Amino acid sequence: MLRVLGMGWALPSTELDNEFLYREVGLERGPDWVSSRLGIEKRYSVLSKEYILETKNRDPGQAILHARMRGETPVTLGAAAARRALEKAGVTPAEVSWVVANNDTPFETIPSTASLIAKALGIGSGPHCDVNSACSSFARQMKLLADTRPEALPEVVLCVQTSAYTVRTDYAAGSVDGYIWGDGAAAEVVSARRPGKLRVEPMIFETRPEGAEEIVIDSAGHFAQNGAAVREFSIRKTCEMFEAIAQEKGLYAESVYTVAHQANYVMQDSILGHLGLPAERHLRNVREQGNIAAAGCPSVIAQNWDCLVPGDQLVYAVLGSGLSWGAGFVEVLA
Question: What is the pLDDT along the chain (334 residues), one digit of tens a residue?
């Protein structure tokens, strides 16, 4: 049985609201368009406002250097989220035997983000590695741990999802992505041996390689996607995953919490409408912090950690580049 002992999250310091992006940066689509199409009001960046205003982030390589100079990177965000998770779990870095990390926007080709986060936290030797499937990485990591033989699984595993998509975002006038992306991280302390607050049953993870080029970040370029195709696929596949798990577990909409990939508030409303899910039981944060990729879904759970009580049930479903998708069932224990 896979248990989560603690969860954490982190955001960088620069807040970007819609008025700033529209009136100062000069994105053509205004706040009314953003509200009706995305439902995102603000997001956070490792870049400064001054840098975005001056450069429109024409060169992602220079953006990486700027973020490093400011001391905010995917590694620092991941380490901050991990510290919160460890504190919540009552676990010290010395007790962690394996760090598994995701990072869609690494500033370093090598070493792994997992190794850098382990070093930042003072974690000792272990089979630390990156396991990345873009925005679905939380589901991929949970499924990996659940599929590992219990006797082969270290007693304490730290999972981290982190990224800084704004360093790969084009802020030219015609850009839509400037309104979508934010930076952030999430982390989970996981064990199959120790008691924890959440019991996690990862149930789905699949990929469709023929859609691999629908969402791309070139090694030296900006984020790019086939927006219409990805939106349709995401809504349909999320509905399918929620329905499949509800049927297998005998769940009812009014008695379970749901968490989807935090890509777009309006898309989530569409999913709720398709399935007849109550909005008050759908947990989300995309309106307040934008799309922070793989960290979006687990950061929602982390931010609601203290509100979840024994007996609560939750279903998560996430989508990512690849194309990839995954989902699972969570039960709050005593």
Answer: 899 999 999 999 999 999 999 999 999 999 999 999 999 999 999 999 999 999 999 999 999 999 999 999 999 999 999 999 999 999 999 999 999 999 999 999 999 999 999 999 999 999 999 999 999 999 999 999 999 998 999 999 999 999 999 999 999 999 999 999 999 999 999 999 999 999 999 999 999 999 999 999 998 899 999 988 999 999 999 999 999 999 999 999 889 999 999 999 999 999 999 999 999 999 999 999 999 999 999 999 999 999 999 999 999 999 999 999 999 999 999 7
Give the closest residue to 135 by CA, choosing from 285, 293, 302. Answer: 293
How many Å apart are CA 188 and CA 252, to the nearest integer?
27
Q: How far apart are CA 292 and CA 35, in angstroms?
A: 18
Q: How far is 223 from 205, CA to CA, in rounded Å?
A: 24
Distance from C-alpha of 149 to C-alpha of 214, rounded to nearest angstrom: 34
198-332 CATH pick, 3.40.47.10, 3.30.1540.10, 3.90.1010.10, 3.30.70.100: 3.40.47.10
The pTM (predicted TM-score) of the whole model is: 0.97
Amino acid at 59: D
Are 2-191 and 198-332 the same fold in CATH?
yes
Residues 6 or more apart in contact with residue 16 via CB below 8 angstroms: 42, 43, 44, 45, 49, 52, 166, 182
The CATH architecture that domain 2-191 belongs to is: 3-Layer(aba) Sandwich (3.40)
Element (H, E) at 163: strand 157-164
CA angle 271, 10, 38 (to 5 degrees): 30
Q: Which residues of 267-306 are buried (b: 16+ CB within 10 A; e: fewer)?
A: bbeebbeeeebeeeebbbbbbbbbbbbbbbbbbbbbbbbe
